[in-house]
Write a structure and sequence with these properties.
This protein has 12 helices and 13 strands. A hairpin with a 2-residue loop joins strand 8 and strand 9. It is of the alpha/beta class and about 350 residues long.
């Protein structure tokens, strides 16, 4: 599913024609490498989370000795403790920046995301886009490798490394292994055989003690109050659980709460919301069998904000000023009313 052209290909064209763009892992690798020269300075941009950070480590390894310089940057503050632990323990060299300064770099790579996913990526002509999310938005790139059937971009990057005959270091393997665990939720969420093959390959290389340390670094004592609020405000009807927890210091806590409630039997839908800055953040979880969280997120909030995801898990972010006036004082009842319109 890779295409390298002398001219950029658009997301829409890729979506229409991607079935004709299938190539072997070695073909993908050689097409990727063909874009770079010894004089290139490369910027890898990610929205920092385990999958994107691990993928960036792999991409940097692929380009080692092939380009002059590789830098990894991200726009979001890393607040989740497990992600902080991952960066620290695996010694990931990545820098947070408020804007990307294009001067000084000759090539740009976007991993585990697409330009339409974050305004931070606006006005950047990415030479490479590698992702496992469905194609969305309007953009162009010279090299596109998007495989929505994969559970993690990290699985794709393992294939690049193996095609190159590169055995990842222990830290690189640990990061990729952990990323696949997180994005597939230990293979309880969407994944395919390729994810399992990459996961198995990494098993004997990764440091399982480091993986465990990262996994156990999840909650601050102060964040338990959000769980208290969620329990107090939650509403359950027709096996659907809704809870609005108010203002949150870090929206990642909403994901943790949603995953926790998603374990409750017989709840089939979990919708958790909170306010971060001037945006409403809504997290969706379901079994993904006869339900589609990504579709629901788009129906409910797609016209007024960014929304999307997979069948089992999705997310929406909406500027507060775009909410209807009678929804400005957002609470669990409002959340339930908005979602029920589309169920």
């Amino acid at each position: 599913m890779v295409n390298v052209l002398t001219e950029a290909i658009s997301a829409d064209d890729f979506k229409k024609n991607h079935q004709s763009l299938k190539k072997t892992a070695k073909d993908r690798l050689h097409d990727f490498w063909a874009l770079f020269s010894k004089e290139d300075t490369v910027l890898i941009a990610v929205s920092a989370d385990p999958d994107s950070l691990a993928s960036a480590m792999a991409a940097k390894r692929l380009l080692r000795s092939r380009v002059k310089k590789v830098s990894i940057v991200y726009p979001n503050e890393i607040r989740r403790l497990s992600n902080i632990a991952m960066v620290d323990l695996l010694k990931i060299k990545a820098q947070r920046v408020k804007t990307i300064r294009q001067e000084g770099y000759s090539k740009f790579i976007l991993l585990d995301s697409q330009p339409s996913h974050n305004h931070f990526f606006d006005n950047i002509n990415f030479d490479v886009i590698i992702d496992h999310h469905p194609v969305s938005g309007e953009w162009q790139s010279t090299f596109i490798d998007i495989r929505p059937a994969y559970g993690a971009t990290a699985s794709m990057m393992v294939e690049y490394l193996r095609a190159a005959g590169i055995k990842p270091s222990v830290n690189q393997a640990t990061g990729l292994f952990y990323a696949i665990k997180v994005d597939t939720n230990n293979f309880e969420k969407k994944a395919n055989l390729a994810d399992a093959i990459s996961f198995r390959y990494l098993f004997n290389i990764a440091n399982q003690n480091l993986v465990r340390k990262i996994e156990l670094s999840e909650l601050r004592l102060s964040e338990l109050n959000y769980f208290k609020t969620a329990f107090e405000t939650m509403k359950v009807s027709n096996n659907r659980l809704y809870a609005h927890v108010g203002r949150v210091f870090n929206p990642d806590i909403l994901v943790i709460i949603a995953d926790f409630f998603n374990r409750v039997h017989p709840v089939s839908w979990v919708v958790i919301s909170g306010i971060h800055g001037e945006r409403l953040v809504v997290i969706f979880r379901c079994d993904g069998y006869r339900k589609n969280a990504g579709t629901l997120a788009k129906k409910a909030f797609g016209e007024i904000g960014s929304a999307g995801g997979h069948r089992q898990a999705a997310r929406a972010e909406v500027p507060l000023k775009k909410l209807d006036k009678h929804d400005q004082e957002f609470n669990t009842q409002v959340l339930r009313r908005v979602i029920r319109r589309h169920l």
